[in-house]
Every structure is written in structure tokens, then in C-alpha cells.
Amino acid sequence: MKFDFILHWLWALVFSILALSGIAMAGAKYGWVMQYDIATADIVHRLAAVVYVLLTLIVILYEIIRILRRDKTLKPWLVFGPSGYGLFTFITTLIFIITGAVIWLFMDSNHAATAFTLWIHEKLTYLAAASVIWHIYMKSHALKWPKNKERKAR
Amino acid sequence: MWMQKKWFKLFIWFVTASFFFAVGAILISMFRFGPTEQEAMSFMMGMMKAMETSLMGLSMQVKEDANVQRLLYESVQFAFPLLAISIAGGVYVRCRRKV
């Protein structure tokens, strides 16, 4: 069982939960996604965000350990990478976490900061969601259902 | 190996479909008319409920309570050095191990 493989799919699941619960809170036009139950969306979004931050910490620590041990084995499932989609994921994740923390901490004290970071957080969600669709398209071979060899042999 | 298992394939299909739903929801919401007055009211009601019963309201109450704030401040004073020591210890142990 590969650690990077598990991290990848945990990441995908948590990001999907974050995207759906976040969209429901984006405005009156979007509330239908969770039937205007903003309270549930808020709890789900914050809990998933904590898991998201923990996963980020784990991936970063894992990379640091790999660098310290001079481990140069290829990890194709690792979420962050030095180039391409891995780099994009890394940058967007950091922006998501920083803007999310500002929204969470300053929601009722600094309205200007909250409004600005909310705008970035929301627009980045649309960009990240579109990029995930592209990522799925590029890796669509993973969606192929396994062929039943026994039945075929008969 | 997991990628060939049927239950795992089902999981991949599920996660993929959820992303397509998310993008579909964004596009539909973005380009449709509205929101109607009823939708705006429902959203505002949802927000009001969230302020009372969700973490959104709880975090606001926490910020107003001086005792809880002091407790949080003192906890952080302990937590950060402990966290730093744990991370440093963990990295050291992991690097010292040969396997």
C-alpha cells in the first residue's frame, strides 16, 4: 500500500467536500447546492478544512523527510511536485489555506480583509475546480472499468 | 494494484462525479438569472441560522469572551513550542532510521 497513493485520494475526497460545501456558501445564487442549509455547509467546510490543512502538513513533512534522506524514488501519486500540476496544486493550496485562515479569524473584526480574501478564496475555487476537470481528463484512463478476464476467456 | 479493484474504481467514479457536479453547479449558478427574492431570503435565513447554531456563531462568541480568549492565548503559548519540539523530534527519529 503506497503512502502517496492514499494521500492523493484522501486529498481528492477532502477537496471535493470542500468544493461542494464552499459553493453552497458562495451566495444566494449558489445556495441550492445544499438546499440553503448554510449551518451544515459551514460546519462541513470548516471540519474538512482542518483535515485539508493537516494533509498539507503531512505532505510537506513527507517531502522534507525525503529530501533529508536523499530519497530520489519517483512518487507519481504525490500531490505536490516541483513542476506542472503538482506545483499548481501546491501554490493554490497555500493560497486557499492563508485566505481561509484570514476569513475564519477576522470575519467579524476586519471586514476589509475578510471581503478581499473571500473574493480570492471564491475565484480560486472556480479556477481549481476547472483545473481538476482538466486533471481528470488527462488521467481519464483511471476511469476504465477492469475487464473480467475469466468471462472473456470462456 | 488498488486501481484495478472494482470497489476502488467505484470510489474513483464517485469522486470524479462529485467534481463534475461541483463544476456543473458553478456554471449553472453563474449563468442563470436571479437570484429571486425567495432565494435571497432562503440564503439570508440560512446565514442567520449558521450564526446561531454553527461554528460561525461559536467562533464569534469565543472572540467576545475574555476568559476564553485568555485561555486560548495561554494554550497557544504551550502548544507552539510543544509542536515545534515534536516536529523536530519526529524528523530527527525518521532521518536516523536506516529503513
Automatic annotation (TrEMBL), chain A:
Which organism's genome codes for this protein?
A: Paenibacillus durus
Q: Is Membrane among the key words of this record?
A: yes
Keywords attached to this entry? Cell membrane, Membrane, Transmembrane, Transmembrane helix
Would you tell me the Gene Ontology cellular component terms?
plasma membrane
Q: Note the Gene3D superfamilies from the entry.
A: Transmembrane di-heme cytochromes, Chain C
Instruction: Assign the protein's first listed, main location to one coarse class.
Output: membrane
| Subcellular location field | Cell membrane
**Cytochrome b561 bacterial/Ni-hydrogenase domain residues:** 6-138
Q: Which GO terms describe its molecular function?
A: electron transfer activity
Query: Pfam families from the entry?
Result: Ni_hydr_CYTB
Q: Which GO biological-process labels does this protein carry?
A: respiratory electron transport chain
Q: Which residues cross the membrane?
A: 44-65, 77-106, 118-137
Q: What is the official name of this protein in its record? A: Cytochrome b561 bacterial/Ni-hydrogenase domain-containing protein
Report how it sits in the membrane.
Multi-pass membrane protein
Automatic annotation (TrEMBL), chain B:
Naturally occurring in which organism (per UniProt): Paenibacillus durus
* Entry keyword set: Membrane, Transmembrane, Transmembrane helix
**What protein name is recorded for this chain?**
Uncharacterized protein
What stretches pass through the bilayer? 12-34, 78-95
